[in-house]
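Hey team,

Sharing the DUF2919 domain-containing protein run so nobody has to redo it. Sequence (152 residues) first:
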Amino acid sequence: MRYAIEQYDKHGFLKAPKWLWLGWIFLAKAWVVFVVAGASRDSGSKILSIVYPDHTMLYLGLAMGLPSMVLMWLFSLRNPDRAWLNRVVSWGGGITLATSIAQLIQTLYHIYLDNGAFSWANGATMLLLMWFVLYLTKSRSVSDCLQTPPDV
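Structure output:
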């Protein structure tokens, strides 16, 4: 047995590692900013203008974060009776990898727009995205938690 019994949910599915959840939240960072701006009523538009001065980038970030939000939601709904949902969740690794690479390309485009000028935000984003891509490709626990158990 590769994993402890506590790492399985009540339906026999392997729980997602904390790093995968944090990576999904990072990929959905535009949604986090959007919710925080909405929750802070009076200063919400100011927060959005500071983090996303160009509204097009906010909309692009919301679109790129949508697969992560949907995967987090579907991952919590897994059940042996929902074979179609388990199949969609099993595609989560490829979807997450594609989303991570797309956000990495978007960050490179931001650097291109800044004429190669260094900014800590772009540097940290690129570093975290590259680490997350490596984690997705190398982690056995990520690939195991996204697979449907054979007896389901």
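The helical segments are 18-27, 29-39, 44-51, 55-76, 83-90, 92-113, 120-138, 140-146.

Ping me if you want the raw files.
A.
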